[in-house]
Every structure is written in C-alpha cells, then in structure tokens.
Specification:
single chain, mainly alpha, Alkaline Phosphatase, subunit A, 3-stranded parallel β-sheet, 7 helices, 3 strands, globular
Length: 272
C-alpha cells in the first residue's frame, strides 16, 4: 500500500472531515489559529492553537497510517521497508495545544542579523532581493495579511520561533508513538530506524524566514557538526551506516536480506 500525502494534504483533510471537522473550501484556512477573546485581529503571530487537536495533526495522521500498514506487513513475518515523510515542522506556523504554549517566546538566542532590515539588505545583494519580496501571504502565518516578513517586530518573530519549537515537539511526540508501535509489534529490535531532515528555517536570522543558509544563521549552525565531535568520528559513523545499508540491500538478488536478521526498515524523514 502507498499513501500519497502531497502538500495539498488531501488525504489528511478528508480524514479530518470524517472525524467531524468542517473543512474549508480554501485548504489554507484549516491552518487559521483559533480566535480567542482579546486576541489582536491584525494578522500578527500569536500563541493561539490550531483548529485541530494534537491527535489530529498531519504527523499524527501519517503515523497512524504507518502503524496500520505495518500491522498487515508483520502478520506473515516478512521483511518490509517504510518511508514515512513528515511534512512538519514547516509553514504555516501553527500547532495544537499544549504545544502552542510549550515554549516562551522570550527564550532562545538573539537573532543573527543586522540592527535593521534596511542594514541587512545592504550587507548581501541576494538578501536585499529576498527581503524585498518575501511576503507574509506566502503561508508563513495564515491570516497575517500581505505585508513583508521583514517588517514583523522582534516580538512577532520570537513568537513564530516559539511556535516552531512547539511544532518540533509535536513531531517528537508522534515519533515516540511510532517507536512504541514498533516495540508493541515486536519489531523494534529487528528494525533499522533512520531519522533525517531536508532543511530547517531561518527563524528571523538575517530578517528572513525561509530555508536558506547564510553565514552566522541558526540554520548554518544546525548544519555544522558539533565542535566536540572530531571530523573523523563523523565520517566513520557515516561509513558504518552505509556499510550496514549495503549489507541489508538486496543488491539485485545476490545478497538478499534474511528476514531473521535486521532486514526491516523504518525510514522517517521530517521536513524541518
């Protein structure tokens, strides 16, 4: 079985509708935060929760579909491979309770950027091009209007970053559910579990919000190896992983993986 979950999230939205949610005609309106008494109505980022609960996120939906699929695969004790592609954490920046208030916006490091967006534009011609055309309407925060991302205040961007961290924790919860499901199915000890990601977000560094890598940005720091880990250690660990990969691969039938050994894979990349 193959479940296709494109960025229009059609299967997830249909699942929400079956659970009693009113799915709007404009799919993006599903990401509108819940309006609460006293909330500003100016499109600024808030810590308001999403319209769906923590067990109804795209990540929860996909995790549930995997566990249901895995149960069928394990009945005959045959090798299996699963590629579970979580979209979150990813814009739009909104997350259900309790993750929406899990992190305080005042926490976290200072942003790596010039004193003003205007000065930042003068540092890099490419940044000038990006910041001049990066609009809030590009689905960063639904309902935020069509102003420039660079015009958000520091408080606004700190709120977005706190929401993003909450989204990371929401995904962590579902990964824990996935691991628990593997253990309950007696698959954990016989499964190679690989977690990876394709990119992060600038989160205010260089007055930007998208997935670009620039000097001194948090995205660059996240991509660098920890200083405490020698380069040789990183490289050797990678080589061991790929040697294991080759050992388990079918290799056109010449080295078929034995189902009695570590021949099951749960590959769960997350778009961070």
């Amino acid at each position: 079985m193959r479940l296709r979950l494109p960025e229009d999230a059609g299967p997830w939205l249909s699942w929400l509708a079956a659970r009693g949610h009113e799915v709007p005609d404009d799919k993006w309106d599903m990401y509108l935060p819940i309006s609460r008494p006293g909330d500003a109505c100016d499109g600024r980022p808030t810590d308001a929760p999403s319209r769906y609960g923590q067990d109804e996120t795209e990540t929860a939906f996909l995790t549930g579909e995997f566990l249901r699929w895995m149960e069928k695969q394990t009945r005959n004790d045959e090798p299996w491979c699963a590629h579970i592609s979580f979209l979150r954490p990813h814009p739009p920046f909104v997350v259900p309770e309790p993750f929406n208030t899990m992190y305080d916006p005042v926490d976290g490091p200072a942003f790596a950027r010039a004193e003003t967006a205007a000065k930042e534009r003068g540092n890099y011609p490419l940044i000038d091009y990006w910041l001049s055309g990066q609009h809030r309407s590009e689905h960063y925060v639904i309902g935020a209007g069509d102003g420039l991302v660079a015009d958000w205040t520091e408080d606004d961007v700190r709120q977005i970053r706190a929401t993003y961290w909450g989204m990371v924790s929401e995904v962590d919860r579902q990964i824990g559910r996935l691991v628990a499901g593997l253990k309950a199915a007696v698959q954990w000890e016989n499964t190679l579990f690989v977690l990876t990601s394709d990119h992060g977000e600038m989160m205010g560094d260089h007055w930007d919000a998208r997935k670009v890598r620039l000097p001194r940005s948090g995205l660059s720091r996240a991509a660098d190896r920890p200083r405490s880990v020698p380069p040789a250690r990183v490289w050797n660990d990678r080589r061991r992983i790929f040697r294991k990969h080759r050992h388990l691969s079918d290799d056109h039938g010449s080295r078929r993986a034995d189902s009695a050994r570590a021949s099951r894979w749960a590959i769960a990349p997350s778009r961070a």
